[in-house]
Design goal:
Layout: E1 3-8, H1 11-25, E2 28-30, H2 32-42, H3 46-52, H4 59-64, H5 68-82, E3 87-90, E4 104-110, H6 113-124, H7 128-150, E5 162-165, H8 171-182, H9 191-210, E6 218-222, E7 225-230, H10 237-248, E8 256-261
Helix pairs in contact: 1-8, 2-5, 5-9, 6-7
């Protein structure tokens, strides 16, 4: 079953388009539900998760990886939903996590600045000058977030399979265009693509399980075989191995867990004659 991610600066139209696509295809439609699921699963406040995937990181957060664990929680929840297929996800960061997955249709929906300002005025009951300021601030936050965390620009068309401008295209026509694209062989799920997404979901789940204690660990997985790599001081290796095995115990889908914990090497001071 196909998967669609919708990104748009217009929340109202993005939601409307996603709901109509999901209704037509008989798919699930998700957005805030992913945040709620991650909040419950990892026992963290919803507001912190929402801010982590919306607000650009502060200088302190950039230096300390302050948002990393919240983003890891969100990513795990999102990929574990997407791996089952039949999902229309409309949110602000979904497409970043599935860039390498070929059968996910990644769509960017854009609208004119005036339409977005009018939408903000109606949604928040504020005058035009306030609405304009908020829309411009939203654009800055989105650019700074993507740039700081992923070195990407959400406005880059290369991140998407399709970019649709709603200024002269109706919502219904937009839905028709997207559904028509999903009929193409390019977006049909294959066994290899399904396996790829399951591997990504398992990798994200393991990373989320250990990120609070070991944010510097790298995780990869292939067909249920998980590899975790770190470079801790040699004296810490036994404890870290025990910790990681305890943290990952019970994660569904792990067939084999390999820990590649290589001791840090201390540069030798050159001897001078």
């Amino acid at each position: 079953m196909p998967i669609v991610t919708l990104s748009s600066s217009s929340q109202k139209k993005r939601r409307l388009i996603a709901e109509r696509i999901a209704e037509r295809l008989g798919h699930s439609c998700m957005s805030r539900e992913v945040i709620l699921e991650a909040s419950e699963q990892f026992n963290v406040p919803e507001i912190k998760l929402a801010k982590a995937i919306h607000d650009s990181p502060t200088i302190f957060e950039r230096l300390s990886n302050g948002k990393e664990r919240y983003i890891a929680f969100f990513k795990a929840a999102l990929l574990n939903n997407l791996k089952n297929g039949g999902i229309v996800y409309h949110g602000i960061v979904g497409h970043f996590f599935v860039q390498r997955v070929p059968h996910v249709l990644k769509v960017r929906i854009i609208d004119s600045m005036e339409n977005r300002i009018q939408e903000e005025m109606e949604r928040e009951d504020v005058p035009e000058n306030v609405a304009r300021k908020r829309v411009m601030q939203e654009d800055r936050e989105r650019y700074n977030w993507c740039s700081a965390l992923y070195k990407m620009d959400t406005r880059d068309p290369e991140l998407y399979n399709m970019v649709i401008n709603l200024e002269r295209i109706s919502v219904d026509d937009c839905v028709d265009i997207i559904c028509h694209a999903l009929d193409k062989d390019s977006f049909k799920k294959t066994a290899d693509a399904e396996k790829q997404l399951k591997d990504m979901a398992l990798t994200a789940t393991v990373k989320a399980a250990i990120v609070q204690k070991y944010s510097d660990a790298t995780v990869s997985s292939y067909d249920g075989n998980v590899l975790i790599h770190m470079d801790p001081p040699v004296a810490q290796i036994p404890k870290k191995k025990r910790d990681i095995r305890a943290l990952t115990c019970g994660i569904e889908g792990i067939k084999k867990l390999e820990l590649d914990l290589k001791a840090k090497t201390i540069p030798r001071t050159p001897m001078h004659k």
